[in-house]
Amino acid sequence: MEQQEQRTSVRLVVVDPDLDAQCDRVEEHLLAPLAESARGAGGHALFADGLVVFRRVRETLAEAVARGPKVWTPNGRWEHEGLRIVELPTDDTDLLYALLRELSGLLVAPPDLPDPSGVVSAVRATVLTPEKTAVGLVGALARVLSLVDLTPDADTATLFAAIEAADGDEDVRLTYGQDEAWQRLAHRLTMLLTESAPLHRFLY
Q1: Degrees (nearest 5) of the Cα angle 149, 151, 156?
Q2: Helix, strand, coil percentages in the chain from 3-state DSSP, rounded to 5
Q3: Residue 150 CB: number of other CB atoms within 10 A?
Q4: End-to-end alpha carbon distance in the chain
Q5: How confident is the model at residue 193 (pLDDT cuts 50, 70, 90)?
Q6: Which H, E and C letters describe 141-157, residue by residue?
Q7: Tens digit of pLDDT for each residue in 51-83?
Q8: Which of 81, 82, 76, 74 is nearest to 180 (CA)?
């Protein structure tokens, strides 16, 4: 039997220091402790798989940055750092969304929830306490997903077409109209990064 071809989705992503900082926070303070605590409690495949997938997504983003092309302002003086086309397996993003839903549920679960495997108590003893930290960390994961799986609009379509036309062979210098699309996209990304209620990312 032939192995089923892995489904992928081609996305426009801005892989800049802000996204890197969010990824560092999620991996170091949320996913790595989750994978370790769940292993000690008898295991929870979603947490362990989530860490593996998250690291794979980060590697793909880094490869896209290294591959190029670089994108420049119309005057050619300033680079729109990390604006790239990235191809990610949909199974990977689906798993991370499932993990986000699981963690969001744990945040609102009653403290007397049955926990025969001990996973919930192990998780609560690590990253899900205190509550403020838990909301912030799960919100950081939501932000990362929103940034790597940005809902397409006219601006992303404009920038995607400009980068795709270069076919990776040469840098891209945006026209003034394309640069206006970038400015609107940059504002949208800033809202995603700074929104005080990060789990509302689905509104974007």
Answers
A1: 100
A2: 65, 10, 30
A3: 18
A4: 41
A5: confident
A6: HHHHHHHHCCCCCHHHH
A7: 999 999 999 999 999 998 999 999 999 999 899
A8: 74
Measured distance CA(17)–CA(81) in Å, rounded: 9
- The single-letter DSSP state of residue 130 is S
**The pTM is what?**
0.83
* pLDDT above 60 (res 190): yes
Mean pLDDT of 144-160: 93
Q: Locate 186 and state its tokens.
A: 């940059």
Between residues 198 and 129, the one the model is more confident about? 129
Whether residue 161 contacts residue 39, with contact meaning beta carbons closer than 8 Å, is answered with no
Tell me 204's DSSP state.
-
Cα-Cα-Cα-Cα torsion 173, 58, 195, 109, nearest 10 degrees, comes to 160
Is the Cβ–Cβ distance between 86 and 11 less than 8 Å? yes
- Residue bearing tokens 């929103």: 146
What pairs with residue 85 in β-bridges? Answer: 12
pLDDT of amino acid 119: 65
Residue the block writes with tokens 């920038």: 159
